[in-house]
Write a structure and sequence with these properties.
Keywords: DNA-binding, Phosphoprotein, Transcription, Transcription regulation. The protein is an alpha/beta fold. A 6-stranded parallel β-sheet has the order 2-1-3-4-5-6, sandwiched between helices.
Amino acid sequence: MRIVIAEDAALIREGLTHILDHFGHQVRTVGDAPGLLAEVARELPDVVVTDIRMPPNFRDEGLRAALELRRRHPGLPVLVLSQYVEHRYAAELVEAGRGVGYLLKDRVGDVAEFVAALDRVAGGGTVIDPEVVRKLLAQRRMRAPLERLTSREREVLALIAEGGSNNAIARRLAVSDAAVAKHVNNILAKLDLPPSTEHHRRVLAVLAYLRG
């Protein structure tokens, strides 16, 4: 894959480059948000990896650049890799569609898992660290239509938000796959999510949960 990395810390930037080179990927790097926008315009990469806080103000430049890239290049896969959770823009990034990820640097403890997550995002999947989900939820209170859900349905939806498949959720809750499928169908119906692809409906359900 052709990857553009936006990271102002030289050691992290070089470390990521070394790792991804080892896995056979072509990597270009930049140190700020304007550089990211320019490099993507030149290279049209397969996926972007960006930090959030970068020069000149070290606030949310990287994340805002990622959202701008999604507007300029619809469907461009973007993986945010940061120490921080920006509550406003995190939900907006996920809402932008498939091919997005949000991982926390201090919780990435395995190189192979990181590369697998990057591959998943590049392939159109969604990868969100459970800690990001928890921090977003801590900023929001439950409200309708989530109030329609039973306690078990909320539990299932929380596990969906953490990236669990029906089978994984069934194992976690010690119930059958059929029971989980029934809960998922009830959740989608109560959240007024019309029939579509299963993946898309689950992402919309998670967004509703994050905003609840």
